[in-house]
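Let us practice reading a record.
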Amino acid sequence: MKKLHFLMIAIALCGLTSCNKLKPQTPATKQPPAATDSKSTEGDNKTKESPKPQVDKATAAFQASLSQERLPVQNSGKWGYSDGAGKIVIKPQFDLVFEFSEDMAVVQKNEKWGYIDKKGKLVIKPQFNQALAFSNGLAPVQIGEKWGYIDNTGNIIIKPQFDEALPFSEGLAVVQIGDKKGYINKTGNVVIKPQFDEALPFVQGLAAVHKQNQQGYIDSSGSFIVDPQPAHTIPDSGGGKKPGKKNK
């Protein structure tokens, strides 16, 4: 139940993300920007200048942006990616996928999680029990029963030691030790000690936290900016989306 609760929170946060990503997405039909005629006046004669050069540049830029998009798609029970125009660019071959974040996406194959680049190449082979999207240059991964963080080459930067972990946001990440949550920095040092029942990632310098049936907002030093009040009176900060797909 505890694991399911954590994963449900991760899915909700995903919105850095993030992530309504497990569902096949049919790209909306996009139209290139419309061209506008420009007029020039020479004496009493008005002549229309051909907008064609601008149309060509705008169309090329639009098509280039579509080709760089990567949207999760499902076919015959497997997941891959299409570009913004709906063309399959990474063939469906994975059991589950996340959306791309920092040019990498989390994918599952044979019950293990790894990372691919935008060409579909496995850059970090599937080896983790669970994994989340990259943010601030690091990604949380579960090895055995504990969570730690890797860089984009797969090297472990913060050793697995946490019971739960979320992606970094504004240089800090939510981690859980025992049944309490706090925050670490990118070197793995605890900067706000685990003391909260629930905690969300930082957004614009503030994070919503829940403690003993009360909720408030803290700054990056852990000081309350909005004093704790009964939880139902303070709205969700809406922060800390998890980049990538919905979590497992």
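A brief commentary: The chain is about 10% helix and 40% strand.
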